[in-house]
Structure to design on (156 residues):
């Protein structure tokens, strides 16, 4: 089946089997490997992308379900000149990552939270992070990164 999408601001068309997960279409067909496959059960959040303005876990949704959707992956957050998105910069500056495997999903979830709740409290940030698992860091620097990124993001 052919699925037409808008990915990171550009039109894309992928030929996929009807049972192809969105994460695999992004990684294998479009070569956007920043979206990671962690658990395949929507528990870890490494595969989080933004679809039509909302964060979703792309490992438990089929590519064909997103015909015509606008998708943003971690590769689509930075500016065209390579300047990092404020949330990406905050994760770097606050040491909110170690191995980096969970980071794309964490960043995408954090961007979504801050876009829809620009004044999220620490408790709300921690609640958001329950859907993203990090096996390397303590969550304190991740929370600090989300707070710093939130402060630097333009209000919608």
């Amino acid at each position: 089946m052919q699925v037409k999408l808008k990915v990171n601001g550009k039109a894309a068309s992928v030929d996929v089997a009807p049972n192809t997960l969105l994460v695999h279409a992004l990684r294998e067909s479009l070569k956007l490997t920043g979206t990671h496959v962690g658990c395949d059960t929507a528990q870890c959040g490494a595969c989080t992308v933004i679809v039509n303005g909302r964060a979703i876990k792309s490992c438990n949704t089929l590519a064909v379900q997103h015909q015509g959707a606008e998708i943003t992956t971690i590769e689509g957050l930075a500016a065209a000149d390579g300047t990092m998105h404020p949330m990406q910069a905050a994760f770097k500056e606050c040491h909110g990552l170690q191995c980096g495997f969970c980071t794309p999903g964490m960043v995408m979830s954090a961007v979504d939270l801050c876009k829809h709740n620009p004044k999220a409290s620490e408790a709300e940030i921690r609640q958001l992070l329950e859907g993203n698992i990090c096996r390397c860091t303590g969550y304190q620097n991740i929370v600090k990164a989300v707070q710093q990124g939130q402060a630097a993001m333009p209000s919608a």
Notes: DSSP finds five helices and five strands in the chain. The mean pLDDT is 94. The beta strands are 2-7, 10-15, 48-51, 54-57, 70-72. The longest helix spans residues 103-116.
